[in-house]
Amino acid sequence: MPRFAANLTHLWPELPFLDRFDAAAQAGFTAVEVLFPYDFPAGEIQQALQRCGLEMVLINAPPPNYTGGDRGFAAMAGREDRFAHDMRRATRFAQALGVSFIHVMAGVAEGDAARKTMVENLKLACGLAPVGLTLTLEPLCPASAPGYFLNDFDLAAGIIAEVGADNLALQWDSYHAQEITGDALACFAAMRPLIRHIQIGDAPGRGPPGSGVVDFPALFRAIDNSGYDGWVSAEYTPGAQTDKTLGWMKSA
């Protein structure tokens, strides 16, 4: 059975943020991820993790830009200085929380200039990342992220190959994979050599496993059979109370 983590940005939205750590631990999770934790002091999050005996697996970059203007996304030409600033801040946050992965977001962009910008930014970020921290790229489907540059798995694989860094890998999400390719299982098999972090949600609608068309029993078997030993993070929209949507964990 895969090792499951809880995405606390999506799950338990009915609870205050810091209470979600307790809810995850009570539900049987031993690891969590938070997309943008920057609104809370790292020390408060550390205390929540320690109190609940949880590991923080992943955060997103860049953090929110409170100074105004566009955020320094990786594929936005002309924002290279902002990207470097954002990555330094995200890295400090990740180190404070013991995080293993930073998901580097591409942002809204298009064309060859965007790809070139992203490759060069990632080369810089990978070179500066401390030992033990892996940067990830995640293709996002147009339904969830209109105009997002990294909306194709082959594009992501090509950028990873061009950057050529051991600490850059693919973050694979079953919801986005199903929406982009129409076959999440085939996509997982094709992309498996590049995958170091997995997230799950059903499609369409990004509901809990079992609410859509993805064959999760088959996917979980494929994950186990592939030798993947990382975290599989539940990143879906629970709709009702989150605790009522966790039946899929018992049958995994």
TrEMBL record:
Pfam families xrefs: AP_endonuc_2 (PF01261)
**Domain spans labelled Xylose isomerase-like TIM barrel:** 21-251
Q: Which InterPro entries match?
A: HyI-like, Sugar_Epim/Isomerase, Xyl_isomerase-like_sf, Xyl_isomerase-like_TIM-brl
Q: Which SUPFAM superfamilies match?
A: Xylose isomerase-like
The organism's place on the tree of life at top rank: Bacteria
Keyword Protein biosynthesis (UniProt): no
Which keywords label this protein? Isomerase
Q: Which residues cross the membrane?
A: none
PANTHER family referenced in this protein's UniProt entry, alphabetically:
HYDROXYPYRUVATE ISOMERASE-RELATED, ISOMERASE
Family of the protein in this entry: Belongs to the hyi family.
Full protein name: TIM barrel protein
Q: What organism is the protein native to?
A: Pseudosulfitobacter koreensis
What high-level taxonomic lineage is stated for the organism?
A: Bacteria, Pseudomonadati, Pseudomonadota, Alphaproteobacteria, Rhodobacterales
